[in-house]
Structures
1.
Amino acid sequence: MGEGAPVSEPLPMVDLAEQQRRLRPAIDRAIARVLDHGRYVMGPEVAELEDRLAGTCGAGHVVTCASGTDALLLCLLVHEVGPGDAIFVPDFTFPATAEVVALIGATPVFVDVFEDTFDLDPANLVDAVAGVRRDHPRLRPRGVIVVDLFGQPADHAVIADAAREADLWVVDDAAQSFGAGTPTGAVGTLAPMTTTSFFPVKPLGCYGDGGAVFTGDGEVADRLRSLRVHGQGSHKYDTVRVGINGRLDTLQAAILIEKLAIFPDELRRRRAVADRYEGALTGVVQTPRVRDGWGSAWAQYTVKVDRRDEVADRLRAEGISTAIYYPRPLHAQPAYRDHPRSAGGLSVAERLARRVLSLPMHPYLEPGTQDRVIDGVRRAVGAE
Ligand SMILES: *Cc1c(COP(=O)(O)O)cnc(C)c1O
């Protein structure tokens, strides 16, 4: 064995230590500045971060908030969602996408996704809306939350057409895709409202919880700003709507400003890892498809394999971590078993839950380590 780490050293899915080494002096200074000025809530770094995020993606307005989940909740509050409303969500996503809908008393309706890009299938959405109108006359179809799963934007132009036909508004859950782009624009501008998360392992993560909503509509932005502070009006104790305590901490904003400075470089590094995986694993496992001319933020590099659990066990035995996002479609989770599902069926989501496997992915994954993953996967599936 050479000078480097022994081959048996466990290889994590995500390693945030290298990024911290790179940024530590700048982050220490940023934290010290906040401690010095003492404005821990809604300090100047919050507005500065919002400006910089808007500049990064071209969104007209950015309203930061306490988490990606709160970002979704704020969008539902803007649309005044409540009991009797049917909100369509992908069946194959992180639970937060559906949870906010159920939490405010509305009904999430599960919609199937595409097998190759993992995102919402607009034809299945049309079936789902028709099914609700036919079978659940007391529910009112109102909106759809689209998820840019694993970092690639969904096909928002096609979804927007289907949503317009069905008289639904659209929210883009971009918790995994901030930083990605399409030929028609960057994530943050692909839907009337877009949400993201700054949870530490998302592509742009802070050191705690955080999130943001992006919109091109100034009035919506004003409503979001009011909703995140208890529905505040023009004065502190002027309460004009029912809101939440949903602010981003100044400390997290200060940390994110430093992280945003290196984010374009990190996205390039993630893309290089994905390109290398793609080159070496095509034909060995089913690699993820990126639409022509589109980008991904590569939150996850997710392949599909038969006998997935065996493959994951073999990789674990070699010290290579993998993750299963997601082992069950939402309609099969105990919390959501009784909710309506698309009349078009959910067979793709069911199949994906049995076959997906996410490989280690982060900007600081060295070529030698990538090779270890690639060789491990080839052995685990019996390709060599
Ligand atoms: C992480 C995530 C969320 C929730 O974000 P938090 O900041 O953890 O609240 C919502 N939707 C998707 C698709 C996510 O991946």
Note: Residues 1-6 have pLDDT under 50 and may be disordered.
2.
Amino acid sequence: MTRRAELADNLADVRDRIARSCAEAGRPESSVTLIVITKFFPASDVHLLAELGVTDVGENRHPEAFDKRQACSGLDLRWHYVGGIQSNKAAVIGSYVDVVHSVDRPKLVGGLDRGAAQSPATDGDRPVGLDCLVQVSLDPPTHRGSRNGVATADLSALASLVQDAAHLRLVGLMAVAPLGEDPTVSFARLAEIRGQFLDEFPQATALSAGMSGDFEAAILAGATHVRVGRSVLGLRPTFE
Ligand SMILES: *Cc1c(COP(=O)(O)O)cnc(C)c1O
């Protein structure tokens, strides 16, 4: 089987699973965006994915993300950054991606805003601004110190900082289900956090949740963006 046929098969399967979860949740299929996470896979795969109708791709590391975007510059794709961000890389990442999912601490906001200010994208004569999601931790409080997102108690303050930054747009929340817990339970907690978040930030309606192992559960809990790697591309060539 060619790589193209393999990706086409996998994509059809994932799209079918998304459609069934949407039906089960009583939501239109158009309410969920599939982001294919292409980390560790070559730019040639991204070209094939674009041919197969993928509109959104995600990466989790700089400079891999930058290099791949350069190698795919002719393609009409939205580039999402979903990985942890070192503070000193925030500006460069903010200058070349379209959406950042992993804003997890106040220290990143200034750099992302500076980077976004350099981005050439405009809507008429207004800068478009960089779409940002705040990554919230679903870890139990006893896991303090882990780096899986901002603690719920600090979420509102971080989201306000993003909202007030001149070149950033607060569009929603992102989360990763912690290992060792039923994702349905984790995502129920996320839905509750999101409910309160939307009271304060009603325009920030995006919810990025769900990976290969748990995107169905995430859609049932309200996810609008699922981040799927292995189920589309296969096993990653290297361990993380
Ligand atoms: C790698 C990654 C994914 C995709 O994971 P798969 O299990 O390959 O689907 C999703 N989200 C983040 C933040 C990732 O780093």
Note: Residues 37, 39, 60, 82-83, 176, 211-213, 227-231 surround pyridoxal-5'-phosphate (CB under 6 Å).
